[in-house]
Every structure is written in C-alpha cells, then in structure tokens.
Design a protein that fits this description.
The complex is a heterodimer of chains A (101) and B (624).
Chain A: H1 2-18, E1 22-28, E2 34-37, H2 41-65, E3 74-77, E4 82-87, E5 92-97
Antiparallel strand pairs in A: 1-2, 1-5, 3-4, 4-5
Chain B: H1 90-102, H2 104-126, H3 141-144, E1 149-156, E2 164-170, E3 177-183, E4 198-202, E5 211-213, E6 219-224, E7 231-236, E8 241-245, E9 254-255, E10 266-271, E11 279-284, E12 288-293, E13 302-305, E14 320-325, E15 332-337, E16 341-346, E17 356-361, E18 367-372, E19 379-384, E20 387-392, E21 401-402, E22 410-415, E23 422-427, E24 431-436, E25 446-449, E26 455-460, E27 466-471, E28 475-481, H4 483-486, H5 492-532, H6 535-569, H7 573-603, H8 611-623
Antiparallel strand pairs in B: 1-28, 2-3, 3-4, 4-5, 6-7, 7-8, 8-9, 10-11, 11-12, 12-13, 14-15, 15-16, 16-17, 18-19, 19-20, 20-21, 22-23, 23-24, 24-25, 26-27, 27-28
Classes of the chains: A alpha+beta (101), B alpha+beta (624).
Chain lengths: 101, 624
C-alpha cells in the first residue's frame, strides 16, 4: 500500500512539475531541509530557509487576527515570477511559476 | 484524563434572572431658587469656555541619541540536518531524504498539498490576475511633480574645531565616495589645534570617514583624477600641491617644493586631459597659474602670470580664485579672478603675451565659481558678488543673462551634468538654489535651506541626482533632487540653444549700437576740434552749448509762467480767444519743444549729453 501511495505522491509531484510555466518545485520539511527539489542546491536552500520563515510569519499573522483561522495558501507575486507556497503542519510545498498568458 | 476546575457559589449570586417592571416617574428632590442668596454673588462677564470630556494630553518630543551602527553579514551554511547526518556527504543526505519520503505523514501531506497547488497553478495559467493597468499613464506623471529635494545624509567634521568644507570631489567611478577638503579660510582664524586633515567619505556611512588624508597644511581644494580613481591631488593653504594615492595610505605620496609653489592658498586645481593622465594645473590668489606633472612635483612644468597688461609681470597680476577647464577644448581654459574679471587663456599660444586671449568684466567681487555649460561649451556660468551670470564667449562687454541681486552672497555654482538648463547655486545664508532658466528666469525654481550656517562649496554627482554641499561648520550635506530636475526633458537642448542665441544676438546688437554711438561721438568731437582749432576752442564750444541750453530752458519756463498768469488775470472770451490762440500756439510750441526734448533724451540714453544741448540749441536757433 505504501508503494502505491508513494507512487501517487510521485505522480502528483510530476504532474505539478509538468504544468505550464512551472520553473521549479521544492518540498521542505519542518526543519527546513529540502526533501525533494528540481532546482540546484544553493537556490533550493535559499528558498527553503526564506520561505519557511515567511510562511511561519504569515501563519502567525493570520492566527493573531482570528485564532480560529489558519493559513491555507501563500502567493508571492514578483516582477519576474510567482511563488506559490502550500503549507501543512510539517511540510511545505513551494512552486515557482512563470505565469504566461 | 480531562482537567476540570471546580468552584462553589451562592445560588442567589449565580445569576438569577432579573424581573423588571414599569413604574411611573416620581419626583425625588425639588430645590427652589432662593432669591436672598443673590447678594452673595457677583455676576461675572460672560465668556465662552470649551468643555471636552477627554483626558488631558501633552506633547512631548524625544530625540534619540545618535548611535553608531556597523553592518556586517552572516554567512549561512546549510543547517537543520539532524546530528547524525553530515550535510557534506551526499550518501547520507540521500539516505535521509529517502527515509523521509517513506514516512506516511509525508505522503498524506503531499497528496493534499498537491491538489491545492494544482488548482492554483491552473488558475495562474488561465487568467493573469495581476495585469498592469497603469502602464500607459505612468509617463505623464513626471510633469506635475513639483521640484523637490531631500537631504539624505550629513557628513560632519569629526574634529572638535570645525573647519569649513572648501572643496568637494566625487569619486570618478560611480561616485560612491566623496572627498572633502577642510580648511579655515577666515583671516587669522586658524589656530594651532585645528587639524589639517581632510577626509574621504563613503556616502552610505556618515558616522565615520572612510579615509583620512593628512597633508602638512590644510587643503583648500581637492580633486580625484578622472582617469584613475585611486589618485587625488590637492592644493594646500600654504600654496603647495600634494598628491595622494589612496592605496598607499593617508600621507601624500609627493608634495611640491615650497619655493616653486604658489605663495597664497591654492584655490583651485584641475586635472588635465593628457596621454599620461598625470597633468594638473592650479590657480591661486598670488596671480599665477601653474602646470604640474604629478610624477615630479618639485617644479611646475609651466607658469603663467595673470597680468592684464600681458607682460607677465607678477606684481600687477590678478589673483585667481576659480578655474575652468573643459576636456572638449583642451587648449583653452578660463580663470576667474578676485577683481571680478574672467580671463580666457590659450595654453598653446606662442608667446606668453598671447596666452591671455581676452577678459570679461562682470562682477564687483571675486568670481567664486566658473563653469562652462557641459552641453553648450560656448556659454559659461560665473558667480560672484550677489548675482550669477551666464556669458557667451563671443560677447565680451557683458553677460548675456543674469539673475537679479540676491539677498546674500553667492559662494559657488555648478551646472547640472544631465540638464543643460539647470544650475545650482549656494549662498552664505545656507540656501541652495536650483535655477531652471527654461522655466523661470527671475527666481530660482527651487530654494532650499540646507543649514543655518553659510555654504561654501557645491558639487554635483555625475548622474545629476545627488548634490553635495559643504558648510562653514564642516558639515557636508548630501541631497537628492527629484527626477523632474535630473532627467533631460524633450526639446530642452534646442530650446536652450535658441534662448542663448537670442540673448547673444541681443547683446551683440546692444554692443554694436554702443560702438556706433561712441564712434559718432568721437568723430563729432574730432570734427568740431578741426573747425575751431585747438582744445581750448573745444572747451569754449562746450561752454557755449551750456549757455545756449540754459537760455532755452529759461525761455520755456518764462513763456509757461506768463501763459498761466494770463489765464488767471484775463476773464473775457474775446481777449481770451485771441490770447488763447496765441497762448495755444505758444503751448503747442512749448509742447512740441518739450516732446522733442523727451524724444531726444530717450534716443540718446546712456550716451553723450553734449548732443542734446546741441540739438536743442539748433532747434531753438531755428525757432527764434
């Protein structure tokens, strides 16, 4: 069962990576260690560290305003591309996309 | 097991429901006015009093003490790996990663996150939710922005005894550094304790100068070599020239010998464009302009004495206060003197007497700043006494444009390197004025009070956005001007060229007219001299003219008073008519005479007074 599930994970990640405009994907764990990445090492570490901190800050902001609320998704749009961060309590999925119309 | 908290309370206090019922109003107390008490009170005058039900507030200001901060960075290495995993080892990290991937939590999370992420990515691809709506409108905003400038930093003299910032120079390579020369130019105010040091500041760090330059005598001016950003040359208060290499420390690499240097403070030193990049020339109030090769500062390579009679006589030389050199015209240069003259010189002249080409007389005081317009080298800006003047090289009589007399002395000026019609001036009351001559000629476009003390020097950064000005108490202020004043507007060059041409033409016409009048004057006086023969006759002729003019004047006044008297005395119309006719004739005559007088006066404005009485006397002779 773990095998199929693992395959399911692989398939999900591959599907995301194959989407139009996606530049890179990073999966980060609670300690900030990148588990899976499609970018080079130094960039990955930078993204992992910085977005971990940003996500924690965003989450605490949301919960400060309303304790019942929680952060579901974080989008950072910059001049060059958009960075999407999906947080879970242990892991973080970061995708860098260049939205092309 | 659950955690519970138990407490006991009286049933009655437990929040029994309260039962409300209606009751009619009943009067509790009624106190009537007691008229007998009126006498114990004095009625006060009515006045308005504000009442406000709020807390008392007070305003309080706090200025934090200045603290010095030092920036330093941290280098982050990879971290967060558990103790048993060595991040450098590829195998261990891969093994760790594989272990995490097998974790159930991981799998669940990823599946969930994956679907969410998928949705968002598709959203992004479908519609661009952040389009730029205002792309086209951005370009028009610049025009409405009023000109403004803000102070970014102030670099203060670290010494106890503050000296004036007399010279400023930007680092040639990008301009992240500013070199400032400090000296005290006031008469006999330098004390032994005054430090002779000058500093190089990094514009990001106003707390501490980046480098100190230690000359033997305070520096009055300082320049970076535009070709080599590590070398500087400075002119000292005692007349020597010193040469520094910033890679070699604070002491000058070489100093010129005292015997061959200037005998007065060196007010300006400029690097020349040469193949070796080591030539500079300096000017001082002792009347000399000296050329130096910085590799051999023991003796100047060339000398020039600013003698207006072109004999090279140092005793009669004019003291130089400012210099200008434009790299597009390498053989010509200009010197501004203490006497208010601007001397234009040619370096490559054959004989020393030909070195001084021409002189422009404009100011009543020393010409403190002199600079050619970087876009129109034929026009240059001078600043001295209370005005700033713009000159054209061809017109030697006067400047083509000038500002009105300002309230305080102007000490320095500079053209903007990016906008040909903008120049900056600093004054002794601490004001920085920005003039845009295409916009307004009467007043500065922007006037800022930079500090309370006098400003003595000014330098613009090569991008045109940053302005550094130095004050009397050793503070160099760095200001940023807004983009309206530092970006080239369309048509600016052509409009400015047209303006300069127009003003030059006007001056030329005035000059030509003046010359004409003078020529006529001279020829007329020569003629009359020939006719009468001898200088005495000329004098007599003048006396005669004066007598004739006086006679004519008395005649007019007499006829006028007579007419008035007649008007008063005679009442009858017949007599009046006749007399009126004759009076009106007289009046007409008088009027026409006075009119022609006026016309004559207006025609010969600045010139010959002699002509007037002559012409008038001619007329009176005709009439009489």
């Amino acid at each position: 069962m773990a095998e199929t599930e693992h395959a399911g994970v692989e398939e999900t990640l591959k599907r995301i990576e194959a989407q139009k405009g996606v530049i890179g994907t990073i999966v980060v764990n609670a300690e900030g260690i990148p588990i899976r990445t499609t970018l080079d090492n130094s960039t990955t570490i930078q993204y992992a560290k910085l977005f971990r901190l940003l996500t924690m800050k965003a989450r605490s902001t949301v919960r400060d305003i309303d304790p019942q609320n929680d952060l579901t998704f974080l989008r950072v749009r910059s001049k060059k591309h958009e960075i999407l961060v999906a947080p879970e309590h242990d892991f973080l999925l970061i995708v860098i996309q260049n939205p092309c119309e | 097991m659950e955690i519970v908290h138990v407490y006991t309370k009286l049933r009655s206090k437990f929040g029994r429901q309260s039962l409300f019922s209606d009751r009619p109003a009943e009067l509790l107390v009624d106190v009537h006015t007691d008229q007998s008490l009126v006498h114990q009170f004095i009625q006060k005058t009515q006045r308005d009093q504000d009442l406000q039900a709020c807390r008392d507030m007070s305003e309080h200001q706090v200025n934090t003490k200045r603290f010095e901060s030092n920036s330093c960075g941290l280098n982050h290495e990879e971290g967060g790996w558990p103790k048993d995993v060595n991040p450098q080892e590829m195998e261990q990290t891969i093994r760790f990663r594989k272990k995490v991937e097998k974790d159930e939590n991981y799998i669940n999370s990823i599946l969930q996150l994956g679907s969410v992420m998928d949705h968002c990515i598709r959203q992004n691809n479908a519609v661009d939710i952040y389009p730029d709506y205002c792309e086209d409108q951005d370009q028009e905003e610049d025009h409405q922005e009023p000109p403004s400038a803000k102070t970014i930093n102030v670099f203060r003299d670290p010494n106890e005894l503050k000296r004036t910032v007399t010279g400023l120079s930007w680092h040639p390579d990008g301009g992240r550094k500013l070199a400032a020369a400090y000296s005290c130019l006031e008469f006999q105010k330098t004390s032994r304790d005054m430090s002779p040091d000058s500093y190089i500041w990094d514009i990001e760090n106003p707390n501490r100068p980046e480098m100190t330059l230690k000359p033997a005598s305070p520096l009055v001016c300082l320049e970076y070599n535009p070709k080599d950003c590590h070398t500087l040359v400075g002119g000292c208060y005692n007349g020597q020239i010193a040469y520094w290499d910033t890679r070699r420390g604070s002491q000058p690499v070489e100093v010129s010998s005292v015997e061959h240097s200037h005998r007065d403070p060196v007010y300006k030193i400029i690097w020349l464009q040469s193949k070796t990049g080591t030539d500079a020339f300096s000017a001082s109030t002792d009347g000399q302009v000296l050329w130096w090769d910085v590799r051999r500062l023991s003796e100047p390579t060339e000398r020039l004495a600013l003698d207006p009679s072109r004999e090279g006589n140092l005793d009669r030389a004019l003291g130089a206060i400012s210099l200008d050199f434009e790299s597009t015209m390498p053989t010509k240069f200009m010197v501004g003197t203490e006497q208010g003259l601007v001397v234009s010189c040619n370096r490559k002249a054959k004989t020393p007497s030909e070195k001084i080409v021409c002189m422009y007389d404009g100011h009543q005081g020393p010409v403190y700043a002199l600079q050619r317009n970087p876009f129109f080298p034929k026009n240059f800006l001078t600043v001295g006494d209370w005005t700033a003047r713009i000159w054209s090289e061809d017109i030697k009589e006067s400047s083509i444009m000038w500002t009105k007399y300002q309230m305080s002395y102007l000490t320095d000026a500079c053209w903007s390197p990016v906008r040909p019609s903008v120049f900056f001036t600093v004054k002794m009351d601490g004001m920085l004025d920005v003039w845009d001559i295409l916009l307004k000629q009467n007043d500065p476009t922007l006037s800022l009070k930079v500090c309370d003390e006098a400003l003595y020097s000014l330098r613009l950064h090569e991008t045109g956005r940053l302005v550094a000005c130095g004050s009397q108490r050793g503070g160099a202020t760095l200001l940023e001007i807004n983009s309206g004043l530092s970006t080239l507007q369309k048509n600016e060059k052509s409009l400015l060229a047209a303006m300069f041409e127009r003003e030059t033409k006007r001056e030329k016409i005035l000059e030509a007219r003046q010359r004409e009048i003078r020529l006529k004057e001279r020829s007329r006086s020569e003629q009359s001299r020939d006719e009468d023969g001898g200088r005495e006759d000329q004098d007599q002729n003048q006396n005669q003219l004066m007598v004739r003019a006086e006679d004519h004047f008395y005649l007019i006044t007499e006829t006028e008073t007579k007419r008035r008297r007649d008007n008063q005395t005679t009442g009858s119309e017949d007599q009046g008519q006749n007399q009126n006719q004759s009076q009106s004739q007289d009046q007409n005559q008088n009027q026409s005479q006075s009119q022609s007088q006026d016309q004559n006066q207006s025609q010969n404005q600045s010139q010959s007074r002699d002509q007037d009485p002559q012409m008038l006397s001619d007329q009176s002779i005709d009439e009489l």
